[in-house]
Amino acid sequence: MKPIEKYVETMENKDFAGLAELFTKNGILSDYCSNSASQREYHIYGKEAINMFFRNKFGFRQYSIMEAEVVNDTQAEFIANFGGYNIMAIATVREVDENGLIERLTVRPK
Fold it and tell me: Can you give the CATH number for the domain in which 65 is found?
């Protein structure tokens, strides 16, 4: 399974621990979609921070994705829900290490 497919699977299942395990120790997840929901964009640095961030977002029902579709080896499109605001989004795996762990992933409005 490709990193983008694993990303979609963990996001759909709200598996914050599994999501964090997809990233390198110093992996970066940047999400620019939140600007469209009157929130600050997210730049999360490191596996532990990704785990904690999404534990809270999923736990308090402040983030989810719906209708996800992997469109190629590095990208997926979905509807991102930010506390009630739905935004069409595209996630892109920008860099992976030699073990297939994500070093950098970005999510942008579509």
Answer: 3.10.450.50
